[in-house]
Amino acid sequence: MNRVLCVSTSLILLALTGPALADLPTAVGEGEGEVAIVAWPGYIERGETDKNYDWVTAFEKETGCKVNVKTAATSDEMVTLMNQGGFDLVTASGDASLRLVAGKKVQPINVDLIPSWKTVDDRLKDAPWHTVDGVHYGVPFQWGPNVLAYNTDVFKEAPKTWSVVFEEQELPDGKSNKGRVQAYDGPIYIADAAVYLMKKKPELGIKNPYELNAEQYAAAIDLLQAQRALIGRYWHDAMVQVDDFKNEGVVASSSWPFQVNLLEGEKKPVASTIPEEGATGWADSTMMHADAKHPNCAYKWLEHSLSAKLQGDLASWFGSVPSVPAACKGNELLTDAGCAINGFDNFEKIWFWRTPTAKCEQSGACVPYSQWAKDYIAILGK
Predict the structure, then answer these.
(1) Mean pLDDT per segment of 10 residues, for the chain of length 382 residues?
(2) How confident is the model at residue 135, as a pLDDT?
(3) Which of 77, 73, 128, 81 is nearest to 105 (CA)?
């Protein structure tokens, strides 16, 4: 099944007008001296953590644009920061990108001003999480799955199912999973529960984890409410989760390849897998604020973000997949096997994040994201 989700423009109630497109810049001018970026942890590196991973320093020297980064741990935090303003760019996932478009917080991108656009993976160029009515609001950056990270001392073989984090059970070491597992601290995690239920309870008829009718949604909430008793800590800070695996007895959790890579790099007994139910995932696009104060530096960064060197280095660092396929070959850090290892061929198997809306393409009336956010906060507060 092709899981690249086609989003009807009517769902986000956005009308593009002629003047908006007419205002697109026609050239990139002299840089303004800086660019401010809201980014996921690990996405904008200047060699401070590891000198081998630096795709900022050379850019600053070449363009004169100083890169200022504000990290955000969740998509909701990214939306909040962009609503507040003061930033030029954001590396938005699909559960934030269309909210930003609908809220008119980001501007259309003139891809003709980005020479390397032609190198972008064809599967991503017109992806519905950054393209509306054929107009691009983002430049594909990286993509990947939300993996199941696990302690290899506890699990001698990779867990086959997400049940190890959703249902109380005895783990292979003879101890309960209660208090030893984590879940993501974000309403979009409800989709992870829905992915699990698609296989666990097929009678619910879930066809899309982001399009849940009242019955399907209630089942997902019930599962998450029961899971609450198992969770030692909900995670959203990648570095805190790394510490939890090292020092707090966490043995299984949804995670990003980024944390797994860091733990493996420290020789910790941690690995990751995509269980039989499949996984949610993220395809992130760099989007420009509607009121960007440094648009020329922003366009220069958008071009830089597609360089094969940056794309390959970042994929190696984060455990993600480049949006530029050429980065998969000849990168010393990623190696020629890196893209396959990180899931280049799993694109069709991932349920990429997107913002749930009240109108569904497959199920009629569905539960909107506003309700997801309200109910998930209630679960966390118990």
Answers:
(1) 38 41 85 98 95 97 98 95 98 95 96 98 95 96 96 98 98 98 96 98 96 96 98 94 98 95 95 95 97 98 98 96 98 96 90 90 84 97 83
(2) 96
(3) 81
Amino acid identity of 293? Answer: K
Residues 190 and 221 sit within 8 Å (Cβ to Cβ): yes
Q: Report phi then psi at 102, rounded to 5.
A: -60, -35
pTM over 0.70: yes
CA distance 297 to 36: 9
* Closest C-alpha among 274, 129, 252, 254 to residue 199: 274
248 in Cβ contact with 235 (< 8 Å): no
- Which residue(s) pair with 147 in the sheet? 255
Query: How many of the other CB atoms lie within 10 Å of CB of 29?
Result: 11
Compute the distance between CA of residue 258 and CA of residue 380 in angstroms, rounded to an integer.
24
Please say whether the beta carbons of 106 and 82 come within 8 A.
yes
| Dihedral over alpha carbons 264, 275, 280, 220 (to 10 degrees) | -130
**β-sheet bridge partners, residue 286:** 91, 139
**E strand intervals along the chain:** 34-39, 66-71, 89-92, 131-132, 135-136, 139-145, 147-151, 181-184, 231-235, 252-255, 270-273, 279-288, 321-322, 350-352, 359-360, 364-365
Q: Do 95 and 283 contact (CB within 8 A), yes or no?
A: no
